[in-house]
């Protein structure tokens, strides 16, 4: 009997030890409160639901509460740190014991003009990455505009002040969205010059250029990508955006307007992170098809002159199809209040189906944002030559924020650098073969249109000429 008791106690003890080991070896759940390094966000994670708070010195407000996939994917976590993958970015978080008291205070000041001004100024002061490059003293900006705001400042007056402050930065990645009524009131008080060329006009022009040089031009997604052969041996690929590239099985002959509406109807029903992957899958599918369909191509022209950006991951995957060696491409780092967070490294990883010959990359001042990321990363590849004018110079991803009054705005909080540590923000990347394209959009498109009337396109002609010269330099194959 005694032995049975001892045996039972021993069994219970072993079970207890085993349970304790399971508990101690169990990975802690990522649920809880986390502070993001470098982006001014605090998140509350509860299973698949995430609550995102914008935090600054004066304010903490709930920006949105959504499924985690509308923010990113949990990549890795420990007791104290969390990594969320957002596209090809890894966002780092540290655990907090609880929400700061600032996030729990009442919303009495939400519609107070002075409070909203202070939050706006603070957010830029803590996160905007390019004051030095722009030559802007943000403290002096405060001294000029803060006295103009009081408790009786109207929404229109406050929005006008914000627009003036944004204009000082001259940054295509800084913008604000307000209710339509306020926007209309603002537009009515200023004289805006209308563009000569609409987006549709621009698309018609780049189609005419492609059709002039390419026999049997093929289009994907209403012309987001156009491709074919020039002179039977030069592949031509015109990529007009780094988004709207997913394959949503839409009709092949849709015009741009109908395609746009039907595309976003499907895209907006996808979680943000899933839709981002749709874009990457789409560009991979079409580029695999292009390389397979053009086996005679001895070189390629990649035309990004009309590409205003989109997704960084799409840009890098395009480059992967024209690279034959894994290597570091560029780094980026996020602004924190006193300096910058540790940089992230981004690599070129050649696609399984890739082209390793000469590539001529066409650029203009309209080549901006994510399309500039491709240009930046191409500097690491010796098989690339860039032709055209300097790119726009807006590399940073946009940091999305919301004021206490609900107005949404974006700012640039990151610095991208090439392998030599050079930062091209506000400067743009110069071409190896410079063409004097105008920085004014209408004048640039006029240049291309006039060139086409003369039966040529300067950049494409130069690429063809360089390829001919390259072919002559190549030694003849030795016959056995």
Describe the protein in words.
- This is S41 family peptidase.
- InterPro entries: ClpP/crotonase-like_dom_sf, Tail-specific_protease, Tricorn_C1.
- It holds the Pfam family Tricorn_C1.
- Residues 198-436 form the Tail specific protease domain.
- The chain has helices at residues 2-25, 113-127, 131-134, 138-145, 155-169, 180-188, 199-213, 256-267, 272-293, 312-320, 370-378, 441-453, 458-473; strands at 32-36, 41-46, 49-55, 60-67, 73-77, 81-86, 89-96, 175-177, 215-220, 225-230, 234-239, 299-303, 327-336, 339-340, 344-348, 358-363, 384-388, 398-402, 408-412, 414-417, 433-434.
- Residues 1-24 and 476-480 have low confidence and may be disordered.
- A hairpin with a 2-residue loop joins strand 6 and strand 7.
- It has a 7-stranded antiparallel beta sheet with strand order 4-3-2-1-7-6-5, with no helix packed on it. The protein has a 7-stranded mixed beta sheet with strand order 9-10-11-12-16-17-21, covered by helices on one side.
- The protein is globular and about 70 Å long.
- The protein is built from 13 helices and 21 strands.
- The protein is α+β, with helices and mostly antiparallel strands and 480 residues long.
- It starts with a helix and ends in a 7-residue tail after the last helix.
- The protein folds into 3 domains: 32-104, PH-domain like; 109-192 and 398-422, Transcription Regulator spoIIAA, CATH 3.30.750; 199-333 and 340-393 and 428-473, 2-enoyl-CoA Hydratase, Chain A, domain 1 (Alpha-Beta Complex).
- The longest helix is centred in the N-terminal third of the chain and has 24 residues, at 2-25.
- Helix 9 (272-293) packs parallel to helix 10.
